[in-house]
Amino acid sequence: MSESEYDIARDLWLRQGKAREALEHALKAAELDAENADAAHLVALLYLDFCSRSADDCRLDAAEASARRALKERSDYREARNTLGVILIHQKKYPEAIEILLPLTGDILYETPENAWGNLGWAYLEKGALDRAIDALRRAVAVQPMFCVGHYRLGEAYLRKRQPALATEAFTAALTVEEPGCRQLQVAHLGRAQAELSLGHSAEALADLERCVELAKATPAGKECAEIRARLK
Questions:
Q1: What DSSP letter does each residue of 8-32 carry, written as one string?
Q2: Amino acid 48: pLDDT
Q3: Structural contact between residues 191 and 167, judged by C-beta atoms closer than 8 angstroms
Q4: Helices in 54-147 by DSSP H: which ranges?
Q5: 1-78 and 145-233 share one CATH topology?
Q6: Which three-class secondary structure state does DSSP give residue 168?
Q7: Where along the chain do its domains lie?
Q8: Is 164 helix (H, G, I), strand (E, B) or coil?
């Protein structure tokens, strides 16, 4: 019965995009079988999905509890370990996130090492350990050059280190990846505009700001792009 509820939840979320209905079935799957690590992990992923949609619906504590439950039931559950690391970053628990993610980067059995390196780099970036962030993020994009979010975060690390030329290269790499969503990575346009302004390239920066606002006006990145654009005009 638990497996059936789990399958329904996955279908509702991944194929039909119905996150709320999916969460209901995932929670039921986890309740029916306390040892169903996949169900617990799915619950954690769904809570994270809600966080990406709305701050009001964000339940990071519940997400963390579910991810830890999945790992308790299956200690070698690599995907759940990565998910827990992401949750801890969102909770600003950077040292703990690094401790969770670091073993994954050396785990030869983990099938998506770019995620481990990318999230480790993200944790270092938010912690302010910029050199370590750059090292980890460079490893992430070396493993998977199509990882546009990894390129974007590498650009952010260079920008914070006040290396705008390298930041521009990384942001450009993010925006030229031929994968769905990469060319619409709004924050990469914002980051590249900021780097270009540091280099004195006002025309190039303005083009990025225009594209950033065009993608979405109401997002935090869209609003920041609009403010910078207004100051330039």
A1: HHHIIIIIT--HHHHHHHHHHHHHH
A2: 96
A3: yes
A4: 60-73, 78-90, 94-105, 113-127, 130-143
A5: yes
A6: helix
A7: 1-78, 145-233
A8: helix
Measured in Å, how far apart are the chain's first and last C-alpha atoms? Answer: 62
Residue type, 195: A
Own/partner long-range contacts of 124-131 (Cβ < 8 Å, ≥24 apart): 124/94, 124/98, 125/153, 125/156, 125/157, 125/160, 126/89, 126/92, 126/94, 127/94, 127/95, 127/98, 130/157, 130/160, 130/161
Structure tokens at 60: 């990071």
Kindly indicate the confidence band of residue 231, based on its pLDDT and cuts at 50, 70 and 90: very high
| Dihedral angle sign, alpha carbons of residues 74, 75, 76, 81 | positive
Tokens encoding 104? 């994954």
Contact 174, 206 (CB under 8 A): no
Name the CATH topology of 145-233. Answer: 1.25.40
CATH says 1-78 is which class?
mainly alpha
Residue 218 phi, psi dihedral angles, 5° rounding: -90, -10
Residue 195 parent element (H or E): helix 186-198
Is residue 53 very low, low, confident or very high in pLDDT (cuts 50, 70, 90)? confident
